[in-house]
Amino acid sequence: MTENKEKAQSSHITNFLRNIINEDLKQGVNDPRHWCGHPGTYTEQMEGPIDEAKVRLRFPPEPNGYLHIGHAKSICLNFGLAKDYAGRCHMRFDDTNPVKEDQEYVDSILGSVNWLGFDWKDAKETNFYFASDYFDYMHEIAEHMIKNGLAYVDEQTAEQIKENRGTLHTPGVDSPFRDRPAEESLRLFREMREGKHPEGSMVLRSKVDMSSRNINLRDPAIYRIRFAEHHRTGDKWCIYPMYTFAHPLEDVLENITHSICTLEFEDQRAFYNWATERSVPITRAPLFEKAKAVLADLQKKSFEEIKPFAEAAVKFKWKLGQTETERELASLLADIKANPENLNDASAHAIVNAVAAKPEVFTPLLQDVLSATVKPNFFLLPHQYEFNRLNLTYVVMSKRKLIALVKEGLVDGWDDPRMPTLVGLRRRGYSPEAMRLFCDRVGVSKQTGSWIDYSVLEGSLRDVLDAEADRRIAVQDPIKLIIDNYPEDQIEEFESPNHPQHLERGSRKLSFGKELWIERSDFAEEPPKGYRRLTLATADKPAMPVRLRHAYVVQATSVEKDSDGKITAVHAEYFPETKSGTDGANSIKTKAAIHWLSVKDALPATIRLYDRLFTVPKPDAGEVDFRELINKNSKTVMQSYVEPSLKDAKPEDRFQFERNGYYVADQKDFTPDNLVFNLAVALKDTFGK
Known about the structure:
By secondary structure, this protein is an alpha/beta fold. 32% of the residues lie in helices and 18% in strands.
C-alpha cells in the first residue's frame, strides 16, 4: 500500500477519541496554552508563545522491557492522532523505578518507534523526555502536599499497609500516622531524602479517602525509599516517586492535552485527577493566581452574580478532600444540597469566602467549578482517556511470561520471529506499513473482552507485501529433477517478471538446464486423491504432465532412491514443442505448474519456517501452564536453494517466494555468503490444517 493510499484510508477512520478531540478543539478546552519549548511549570510556559500544537499527546513506556504488538497499537494511536491534528506526540520514558530499568531497553524502544514510522522530533521541536527530568519538580510538589495536609509519612510496614487497605467489600483502616502534624511529616520526608532511614521503613502517602469504593484512592503511596543507582540520575536520589504519582505530573509539566492509556488504568483516573488538581499551585501558578483573582472579584459581587459559582460548588461537592478546611465547607454544601432553599446571599458568600481564604486546598473543586462557570478546563490540565487493549490470539503479552520464554530458552531471544515483540515481528518480516495497517484495522473502542484473531495480523502483512514484494524463486525442500532427453551441455535463459502486476519493475533471467531442483512435494510416487503434480505412470493411469513455469512441459519417467528408500532424484522427459511463449506452448494440456531452479547456478540458502508459537488461541487463560501449550512445530529450519539474484539482497529485504509465501532476508544472519531467509507469512492461512 502506498503512503498516500494508507493516509487516505486512515483519515476516514473515526473513533470515540477522535470525537473527543474534535469536540475539545471546537470548545477551545485547551486554549490558549503557552509553550516555552520544553516541559516545566506554567510559570515557565508563559515565557513562550501560544502553543501552535493543537494537541499534545505522549507515548510513555517504562524502560524495563521490550515493546510488543500491544504497544504498537498505542504508538500508532498517539503519534497518529498528533500527526492528524497538527499536534505533537512526546516520547517519554517513565523511569521512576531504578531497579528494573536499563539503557538497553531505552535504545530498543526508540528503535521500534522509529521503525514504525514515527518520530518525536521535527524541524521545530524535539520532544524526548524522561520522568527523571522532573524529579526536582515532583519533590517540590510532594512537599507542597505535606504542607497543606494532603500527604503524610507512614511508618507502617508494607504488610500492614496492604492489610489495612481493605477490600472491595470492606473499607480501609486509617494509618495511626495519618493525622501526624504536617511539620513532623515534612521533617521525616526530608530525612528520607537525606538517606537517614532504611528502605521499607517509611513511605510518603497521599491523604485521599480510606473508605473510597475505589481502592486506588485509599491513600496510595507517592514516594518510597530506594537505595539504588538510577540509569540517568546516578545516586542523586534515594527516594523515588511512585509511577501513579509521577505519571500525571509528567503530563502536566509537558502540557499534555489528552492522556491516552489502556482500560486497565481506568480505575487510576481518579487519582490521576487528584494529583494533577492538587499540584495546581505549583504546576499552574499563573492560572492559580487568576483563580484567586476571580475569587476576590466574586467576594465583591451580589448574590445573583455569585449564585452560579455557589450552585456549581454544591454540584461538585464530591471533589472536596479530607482536610479540616474542606470538611467545614463540605458541611455547608451538604446542607444546601439537602435544602436548596438555604442557598442565599449569606451562604453563597460563605462558600466563596471559604474557598478564597485557603484556595490551595480547594484546587480540585475550583477546577470543576471554574470550568463550569468561567472557562472550560480552567487550569489547562490534561485529561485521561482509556481505550481497549489489544488481545491477540495465539500469543502471550504478559511481560512476566515473555521474560520466562526468553530466560528459559523456550525461544531464541527477544527478537525471535515467533515472539509478539516489535523486534521479533520486525525480524519475522513484518513491515512498518503492515503494522500500521493492522492497527488501523483493529481500531480503538471502550469495549472489553474482544479478541483479534492472529489471521488479521497475517492478512495485513499479505495485503501490503502482495503489492510491494518482488517475486523470486526458492526451492525449500529440494529434490533433483533430471531431464533425460535434454541436451547435456545446453543452457537456456527464461525471463521471469519481478512482479506480474507491475511489469514496469522489469524482469530477471533464470537459467534452465538438464538438472533442476524442484520441491519434494511436487512429486508423489503414490499420489493422494486430487494430486495434480508430477507422478509416475501406473498400470491404471499414465504419468501426469506438468509445466515448469516459464519453460517446458515435463513428464516423470523414473526415480532414484538411496539405501533407505528415500527418493533422491526424479527422472523425466521434456517436450521441446511446449516452450513457453511459442505456438506449441499449449499443445499438451497440464493441470499444474511448478517452480524450479537450475542445479548449476542455484545458491544454497537456509530458510526458517515459522508458525504460531502456541497451539491454542488463548495460551495465557490460566487453566494450563502456557509452557505446555507451545507449538513444537513453530520453527522448522530448511536447507534450500534460491535463485542467484538473491545474492544481491540486503537484510530485511522482503520477497514473495513463488508458490510458498512472503520471506525476509534475516536482519542479523543474512550476508551474501550466508543466505538466510525467514518465512514472514504464507500465501494462505494454513494453520491447523
